[in-house]
Amino acid sequence: MRFPDHDPTLAFSPLAIRAAADVILAGGIVAVPTETVYGLAADATDAGAVARIYTAKGRPSFNPLIVHVADLAAAQKLALFDTDALALAEAFWPGPLTLVLPVRAGSGIASLVTAGLETVAIRVPRHRAMQALLAESGRPLAAPSANASGGISPTRAAHVRASLGSAVPILDDGATEAGLESTIVAGRTILRPGPVTASMLSEVLGSVEQGPDAPAIVTAPGQLASHYAPRKPLRLNATEAAADEWLIGFGAVAGQDTLSASGDPVEAAAKLFDALHRADAGDRPRLAIAPIPVEGIGEAINDRLRRAATR
Q1: How confident is the model over 77-103, as pLDDT tens digits?
Q2: Entry pTM
Q3: What is the pLDDT of residues 3-60, one digit of tens each?
Q4: Is the Cβ–Cβ distance between 78 and 102 less than 8 Å?
Q5: Among 34, 200, 245, 265, which is most exposed with the fewest C-beta within 10 angstroms?
Q6: How many angstroms separate the CA atoms of 309 and 251, rounded?
Q7: CA atoms within a 13 Å half-sphere pointing along the CA-CB vector of 112
């Protein structure tokens, strides 16, 4: 089996995984779901393949990529783990946690992946499609979100196709579960909030701190001030829509769409990017979104919304 030329999309199956692995081993790129969002995967040891990710996304080359591996043992071949990192890996892997760690000498990771830094962002995903592709290809996979750089992250195959066009092969396994990108941690500092919350991290480490929103030196994905952004202007904390706005509701605030009518932040996280895609494709020139509480995973939702609203 191979990806069709007219619409290079295959539904998840063993044969589709083999076709995707063939693309990876030939130095190509494939969009594949994880439990967070769809990623644009390439062999992390092949600089030419990684360059194709940057080209497809239009991504700044100073913005490093996350490397996905099958398990902790594979991660330890690429990065140096201290006691804190091991504790976090044992608690949250496989899952939506990325650790920024010193690159191990001789790891073979392409310097484009790390943006020339001495650290690598690495995680063990739990989604069956990414795990199957890791096993079939036998390669560590660099995989940022499968969308044009700075745009709304994709939670469905259709989002990938709309953002990246007709040329990118897509392994379609339905909508993603978490709907938000992974939490990123360096040491005891949260570089990007996500599904693994600060309180969850504190239960393992005792204490954690929040890093700067827009650091002078980007050391991990998702740190740019403007990111995850729709094409249209987005107004935050709206309780009602102006005449020219598409309102995304939450809880008691209704709109053209809602993240969660019951006010459930976990449901809101899973639906966030899908709702932004629908709003951006709607018939109104401006977007608005209801207030989301900041507790728990609400911190990650509000982080994405602040960056989405920055122009």
Answers
A1: 999 999 999 999 999 999 999 999 999
A2: 0.86
A3: 988 889 999 999 999 999 999 999 999 999 999 999 999 999 998 898 889 888 886 6
A4: no
A5: 200
A6: 21
A7: 21
pLDDT (tens digit, 9 = 90+) per residue, 173-225? 999 998 899 999 999 999 999 999 999 999 999 999 988 766 655 667 766 66
DSSP output for the chain: ----SSS-EEESSHHHHHHHHHHHHTT--EEEE-SSSEEEEEETT-HHHHHHHHHHHT--TTS--EEE-SSHHHHHTTB---HHHHHHHHHH-SSSEEEEEEBPTT----HHHHTT-SEEEEE----HHHHHHHHHH-S-EE--BSSSTTSPPPSSHHHHHHHH-SSS-EEE--S-SS-SPPEEEETTEEEE--SS-HHHHHHHHS--EE--SS-SS--STT-SSS-S--SS-EE-S-SS--TTEEEEEBTTB--SEES-TT--HHHHHHHHHHHHHHHHTSS-SEEEE-----STTHHHHHHHHHHHH--
CA distances from residue 125 to 66, 67, 166 in whole angstroms, order as listed: 11, 10, 26
Single-letter amino acid code for the residue at 105:
A
Percent of the chain surpassing pLDDT 70: 94
First-to-last C-alpha distance (Å) of the chain:
43
CA atoms within 13 A on the CB side of 196: 27
Edge-to-edge strand order for the sheet containing 257-258? 234-235, 286-289, 245-249, 257-258
Task: With CA atoms as reference, report the closest residue to 296 among 268, 262, 265.
Answer: 265
20: Cβ contacts below 8 Å, ≥ 6 apart: 3, 10, 30, 32, 133, 136, 137, 169, 171
